Amino acid sequence: MMYLGYSDRVQPMLEKLRRFIDEEIIPNESRYNQELEGNRWSSPPVMQTMQAAAREAGLFNLFLSRDAEPFSQVEYAHLAEQMGRSEIAAEVFNCASPDTGNMAVLAQYGTPDQQKNFLIPLIAGSIKSAFALTEPAVASSDAGNIASMARRDGNGWILEGEKSWVSGAGDPRCGFLVVMCVTDPKAPLDQRQSLLLVPLDTPGVEIRRMISVFGYDDAPQGHAQIRFDKVRLPADALIGRQGQGFEIAQDRLGAGRIHHCMRSIGAAERALELMGQRAQTRYAFGKPLSELGGNVDVIANSRIEIEMSRLMALKAAWRLETAGLQDALIDIAQMKVAVPNMILNVIDRAIQLHGGMGVSEDTPLAKMWAAHRALRLSDGPDEVHREMIARNEFGRKSQSYL
Amino acid sequence: MMYLGYSDRVQPMLEKLRRFIDEEIIPNESRYNQELEGNRWSSPPVMQTMQAAAREAGLFNLFLSRDAEPFSQVEYAHLAEQMGRSEIAAEVFNCASPDTGNMAVLAQYGTPDQQKNFLIPLIAGSIKSAFALTEPAVASSDAGNIASMARRDGNGWILEGEKSWVSGAGDPRCGFLVVMCVTDPKAPLDQRQSLLLVPLDTPGVEIRRMISVFGYDDAPQGHAQIRFDKVRLPADALIGRQGQGFEIAQDRLGAGRIHHCMRSIGAAERALELMGQRAQTRYAFGKPLSELGGNVDVIANSRIEIEMSRLMALKAAWRLETAGLQDALIDIAQMKVAVPNMILNVIDRAIQLHGGMGVSEDTPLAKMWAAHRALRLSDGPDEVHREMIARNEFGRKSQSYL
Amino acid sequence: MMYLGYSDRVQPMLEKLRRFIDEEIIPNESRYNQELEGNRWSSPPVMQTMQAAAREAGLFNLFLSRDAEPFSQVEYAHLAEQMGRSEIAAEVFNCASPDTGNMAVLAQYGTPDQQKNFLIPLIAGSIKSAFALTEPAVASSDAGNIASMARRDGNGWILEGEKSWVSGAGDPRCGFLVVMCVTDPKAPLDQRQSLLLVPLDTPGVEIRRMISVFGYDDAPQGHAQIRFDKVRLPADALIGRQGQGFEIAQDRLGAGRIHHCMRSIGAAERALELMGQRAQTRYAFGKPLSELGGNVDVIANSRIEIEMSRLMALKAAWRLETAGLQDALIDIAQMKVAVPNMILNVIDRAIQLHGGMGVSEDTPLAKMWAAHRALRLSDGPDEVHREMIARNEFGRKSQSYL
Amino acid sequence: MMYLGYSDRVQPMLEKLRRFIDEEIIPNESRYNQELEGNRWSSPPVMQTMQAAAREAGLFNLFLSRDAEPFSQVEYAHLAEQMGRSEIAAEVFNCASPDTGNMAVLAQYGTPDQQKNFLIPLIAGSIKSAFALTEPAVASSDAGNIASMARRDGNGWILEGEKSWVSGAGDPRCGFLVVMCVTDPKAPLDQRQSLLLVPLDTPGVEIRRMISVFGYDDAPQGHAQIRFDKVRLPADALIGRQGQGFEIAQDRLGAGRIHHCMRSIGAAERALELMGQRAQTRYAFGKPLSELGGNVDVIANSRIEIEMSRLMALKAAWRLETAGLQDALIDIAQMKVAVPNMILNVIDRAIQLHGGMGVSEDTPLAKMWAAHRALRLSDGPDEVHREMIARNEFGRKSQSYL
User: Fold this and answer.
1) Which residue, D294, D283, D387, is CA-closest to D349?
2) Which of 1.20.120.1200, 1.20.140.10, 3.40.50.2300, 1.20.272.10 is the CATH number of D246-393?
3) pLDDT one-digit tens code per residue, D376-391
4) Is residue B20 within 8 Å of residue B85, measured between CB atoms?
5) Is A385 in Cβ contact with B300 (below 8 Å)?
6) Among A10, B58, C304, D216, which is most buried by a count of CB atoms within 10 Å?
7) CATH topology of domain D10-97
8) Taking the C-alpha atoms of C56, C60, C64 and C65 in order, what is their torsion angle to the nearest 10 degrees?
């Protein structure tokens, strides 16, 4: 049976989480932004304060913890939705992307040393991390385009290449990168690549620039373009087996896409909440906006689209949980197309209802829109997912893609 | 927990049903249409043949049977989806609308005599029925607009008024109508109306015309406009209590909307199946359509929209089942807006891919489209449902509507 | 300079035409339909009456007349828009498709005998005509798919093949078909075909069936599927030169697409007019529909879409007039995609605002919708036109298509 | 006759302008942005260089010049389109908004002193200007909401109030503001306001903050929130008559909306150009993007939408020119809804085709999108324009709005 609702275990946690976000995080958003104003590439002090409160409330590390069984995919999806309601919430609970993905990878495939030196500090929140997959100037959704290469150098490796959209690398706390690179250029496409763990301070690792998203630098995490210039790495840099990079990355991205989409749904709930408040309190021509023009339809359609998006993402989570990644790929692809598109509509309508405030820094909406617009491209553009869905419909296998 | 999948009980039934439809019904569609061609207002003989086969296969009366526990809302929703794959399937299983709704009403509210004289023959498939709610020239989604009136006449009633869109009344086997009419003009809106059971051959009941949907007469059931001219009815014509009409109708329409939407999803699956076949077998400019233009996107989007629609309708079924009608009203309203609109897109794209065949009688698509277009108006137009959803969002109560 | 407005010559004609349609045609629509009810495959007598009135008013043969200079493309486009306001108007003025296209072809390419025997009676309104291009079971937008073939037989021809969607062939007054067929199978694609003039009563011409459009038979003209079984034709059956079929057909279809689209705009104006009346006179929940939900937006968007559609079609007409067909092909393709899609939206919204009446025979809207839906497929489906537009954008030549 | 094309006068100017933009401006865009990087709130030196070249080429002051007859509305619309192709082009030709609007106001309504002190330097390009209409925290599209007030103080005025979205006020060259404020609180709505000319360095004028649009500060012009705290102004601050503010502003905004929309069309042409280049040069899975998925449709639809948008805006320009503002209001409203929405679609598709580059600073697309998204709100949100269009359809007058 497909169960998509709240389990007994997750329900009280969800309520606690929601209350914490409403009381401790949303009221601190503007302070976070002010603190960031003066010093963009360091973490605002209020983040520490909020994290301390989250620890105390037993809400730190909801994704992976040393003390408790992990939540199921469906359970965690519900938690991720709540975290999506504030742009800064996931980090407060040490559940921000790409850290959670890296935690999962190191927990499953990491060597004891990798776990000790990188996973444990990551879970402790004392370091942050990044994931380097996309490359500039090629379509990275085609795994065959990846050109960064690591060749054997004695026991170790020499890594050469360039990566872009390395999200999180701007944060001074970022301790390491997980880098996808070719290690066996002649192997079949899905065994050609490996993942290497690269501390950010390794000689030859150069952040060439930070990339903006609709004018936002997304500090302090940011999105880096990074050059790897003859970067020497020890044998222990390899995560999993040589040639296992594609497999691990697919695994990592599968769950990651669900988390992204569930957070999107939380963001859309926030947008709808703001829209409802605005519609009832803003007056023009003597009436509240809720009684003008098609605003009733706009709000109803937004509710409908959020509900459908949530069900679709929960179903993908349920499938991943019960049938495994291969059988969940199409569900995840469907979700990855549908959810960001629907959610962008919701946010866009909220912007419109807020007038000039909507496009400015006076609401979280404009930045929310920019982040979700990027989501239609990151982790595979809509087009690649649609291709995969259609081929499945035709009973044909889809081409290799990440 | 929200469970939307197949129960152990329904799964084997579903497989049997799907096979029966594929093997016994779809291959008979063209024969059904041919038999109908010569004699539009009688049931084609092949319907009897298929019904006999369904009885033998244990598939007759899946909605309500004297021999078995009824399926749950979610279970029946899955069955209804299968039946939606062929326009003529629901009747084969004695599960066509409005008969199922009338069965439910009579089973719950009918007097022993009503059950004996009308429910039992209806379940046996020896008579058919209709439901008369909409009135010409007013917005019937506003319950306050209903003008047909029954006044006391001794122990019995005299019914006056006019109804339109009485679907099923064109069928010669149609034995009775369930008629919504005002019985207490001064009562509060939701207690003003009652339901009366009116045999179609009662003196004063006059079918004034059959209404077409796009160019279809929808024979042999059809949609009748019916005049009630001083129709005398016995005391036993009353279904349920006097003044209970609105309540019973809401109840009836709640589940009915879910059945309609699930059948829509089955129809959309059929459209997508046809689309996929066409895309792979039709060539233009040296390529199959599947490799031309945006057909891959068209097919992928259709799959996505079907999946979302199904989840939304199943959720409404689950809520109705576990929380009751009042708590399910918003879920049902969301479904009632979303599903027909999404499904119309799917069918429309299938039409486009079929070229001229798509708009003609050479595929089931054109008729399917017409029927679903009407569904955006029947059982409440989109606009009324959206209003209800938005008001719920604002925490306000919505106005009374059917 | 691009001039799209009313010339001094056309303005008074337009006013006269509009008044005639409002006063003489629209009030006769229901009578036309009633007369047709009893005898679908003959022209209702009221058509004669209206045509007589049009003759008297000097409005007969606005497309091509023996007495006056033809109107320019832009001028005629404005006239065609008016005629689109009623489904039966174009025929009243002897300006119905496909007759006008056939008139143009015979006037330009016809032999004196063809003109005497077919063009003159066509202009006189004593016969009607049809155009046979599309073939069943292939994508006829790909000219390479046309399989009907005429081979030399002495001085004459023997025609073999099958055509579908031969609109107008159901009318008992239909005197002849213009048939596109292969005459030089080995010639380059654009010189492979010729047009033959085939009287409908020629032995071997068999109407196999009439095809419906969303349930409508479109009587009395209808859409025929016609078999040509060893049809012997005289030498004089050839229109233009052998191998000139593609060129003439393109020419004919170019202007024809503009006329279709301008009539669509007239139909959309009618739909918007009906929508506006309905919105102001129909009440629900105590308010006119115009003050409920998003109806204001619905009406405003419809107005905007009509205005844009008209400008686009007028521009195509202007380009055809001033630059010739080759330079106007892209403008015509743009119009052919944009206008029917926009207009379908307008009609669909009008249907929604009319509730059940909208899908029934109680307004002209449902039939109007069906006809325009077919227009997205006839004269080339949207997809073929979009391909051509995109290739032009890339500076590449598009493939041969009709 | 409606003429929308190129006049003999404008055609050579257009060609010159297009060449200048391609050769002198677009190649300087990145230098402009780099120079701005270090010093956001001053004009980059390359702007001076480009302006000098424009002067030499006879392209400076195409909107209003002391030496030549102004172009007609349609002619200038075509010029404005070209300028829209680069975000920085309009300023190069001294045709940037809001300067052109202020030039028009001062040329028509300015006193000789105002013209000497403000108009002449503005035309010379030695100062810039801004227009202060919108107020924070109210719906400024409802003219009744304007609260900034100027009361008489001897011969002069004392101005109190707060304005937001004062575009251009961040530029150090900004010499003066035109401020809309109430001068006769008890007058009818359309005579309640006046325009005052306020030098930016007047005591009491305080820029409280610069507002961002998505993540862009739009430096060096920016969008200011400005407080007027007991600002004393001389009698000569009044532009036009007391109470004439609404009338002048409507006049100013009418033409301004057309210029904005035509520049949008130029921007969309640039986006489509980039899209076409990308589609042909970027490969994935072994094919150029132009042959993958629905990209052909995406490009064709973009071309169609641009063409329709241009025609609609040109028609509004033609109406304004030939019939005057009152008769052009509905055309302008239609354009103001349709054009930004269509153009946003085009830009969004170009973003999608560019992948990560599309949302970053690596193409002009992301910033272009943000600017056009704001255009759906500035100069009246879509909703207000739609309301006006629908009321016109109903034959009713619309409410006063700016």
Assistant:
1) D294
2) 1.20.140.10
3) 999 889 999 999 999 9
4) no
5) yes
6) C304
7) Butyryl-Coa Dehydrogenase, subunit A; domain 1 (1.10.540)
8) -20
Residue A202 gets which letter from DSSP?
Answer: S
Task: Determine, for residues C4 and D2 on separate chains, whether the beta-carbon distance falls below 8 Å.
Answer: yes
Question: Does D173 contact C at CB distance below 8 Å?
Answer: no
pLDDT > 60? residue C397: no
> Which positions in chain D touch C288 (Cβ < 8 Å)?
none
Which residues, including other chains, have CB under 8 Å from residue A144's CB and lie 6 or more apart?
Answer: A189, A400, D285
Residues D156-204: pLDDT tens digits? 999 999 999 999 999 999 999 999 999 999 999 899 999 999 999 999 9
- CA dihedral (D156, D162, D167, D168) in degrees, to 10, reads 50
Question: Which is it for strands D223-233 and B287-288: parallel, antiparallel or unpaired?
Answer: unpaired
Q: What is the pLDDT of residue D396?
A: 56
For residue B210, what are the CA distances in angstroms to B217, B254, C240, D345?
7, 26, 50, 45
Strand C149-153 to C156-167 pairing? antiparallel
Residue D58 has φ and ψ, to the nearest 5°, of 75, 30
- Which alpha helices (H) appear in D21-94, and where do they start and end? 29-38, 45-56, 73-83, 89-92
Residues pairing with C159 in the sheet: C150, C231
pLDDT of residue B143: 78
Reduced to 3 states (helix: H, G, I; strand: E, B; else coil), residue C96 is coil
Q: Is the pLDDT of residue C70 over 60?
A: yes
Q: Between B and C, how many residue pairs show a Cβ–Cβ distance under 8 A?
A: 125
Over residues C205-231, mean pLDDT: 98
Please report which confidence band the pLDDT of residue A221 belongs to, taking 50, 70 and 90 as the band edges.
very high
Domain ranges of chain B: 10-96, 128-243, 246-393
Measure the CA–CA gap between C402 and C133, rounded to whole angstroms: 9
How many Cβ atoms are within 10 Å of C58's Cβ, its own excluded? 14
In one-letter notation, the amino acid at residue C232 is R
Determine the distance in angstroms separating the CA of D143 from the nearest CA of chain B, rounded to an integer: 28
D346, D268 contact by CB (below 8 A): yes
Averaged pLDDT for residues C133-159: 90
Report long-range pairs for B61-70 (Cβ below 8 Å, ≥24 apart). Answer: B61/B93, B61/B94, B61/B95, B61/B123, B61/B125, B62/B13, B62/B17, B62/B93, B62/B94, B62/B95, B63/B94, B63/B95, B63/B100, B63/B103, B63/B104, B64/B100, B64/B103, B64/B104, B64/B107, B64/B123, B65/B123, B66/B123
* Per-residue pLDDT, D138: 82
Residue C191 DSSP label:
G
- Indicate if ipTM > 0.85: yes
Average pLDDT on D115-120 reads 97
Confidence tier at B48 by pLDDT (50, 70, 90): very high
In 3-state terms chain D splits into helix, strand, coil percentages (rounded to 5) of: 55, 15, 30
C-alpha to C-alpha distance for C52 and C46, rounded to whole angstroms: 10
Q: Which residue has the tokens 């002649």?
A: A186
In angstroms, the separation between the Cα of residue C78 and the nearest Cα of chain B is: 29
Q: What is the pLDDT of residue B396?
A: 56
Interval C268-292: pLDDT, tens: 999 999 999 999 999 888 899 998 8
Q: Which CATH superfamily is domain B128-243 in?
A: Butyryl-CoA Dehydrogenase, subunit A, domain 2 (2.40.110.10)
Domain A128-243 and domain A246-393, same fold? Reply is no
Q: Chain A residues with CB inside 8 Å of D355's CB?
A: 139, 377, 381
CATH class of A10-96: mainly alpha
Q: What is the pLDDT of residues B170-212, one digit of tens each?
A: 999 999 999 999 999 999 989 999 999 999 999 999 999 999 9
Say which residues have a Cβ less than 8 Å from residue C135's Cβ, sequence separation at least 6.
C145, C146, C147, C148, C161, C162, C163, C164
Angle between helical axes of C365-375 and C245-281 (0-180°, round to 10): 150
pLDDT at residue A65 greater than cutoff 70:
yes
